[in-house]
Amino acid sequence: MAGFTIKGITDDTDTCECCGTRIKRAVALMPLDIDGNEDGDVVYYGSTCAGRALGRKTAWVTGQARAAQAKWEADAERAREWLAAYEPVEFAGVREQFRVFVRERNNTVRAGDTVTASVARLLAHARAILAAGI
pTM value? Predict the structure, then answer.
């Protein structure tokens, strides 16, 4: 393992997985392999243990965790909007998908792509964002 990346902050757990101390909030850390790719499951550390694991000060870790949490919440909100717009037409005809695609995205389909593929890609991406969670 080469280190961690901060995924966010949560109050879903009350125990630090590093030292076992009771905590109010946990910093969600994703282990990274030697190449910097995500490797394994998210671990939940208190801010002090997270700071030690990252070689940073606690205040920096807390700020980064809050920023990562805010980014994820914004991404999740956008994903929910995509699902609300595109799930009703997921299996509809091309014309209906195109109508929704143009109205929602105010966009056209990429060159060499189809409306059906674009809608499927957006839905898959939205579902992946929500499934990943923190």
Answer: 0.73
CB 119 within 8 A of CB 101: yes
Domain range summary for the chain, segments of one domain joined by +: 3-69, 72-132
Burial (CB count <10 Å: 0-12, 13-18, 19+), residue 2: exposed
pLDDT tens digits, residue range 28-46?
A: 999 998 888 888 889 999 9
The whole-angstrom separation of Cα 134 and Cα 131 is 9
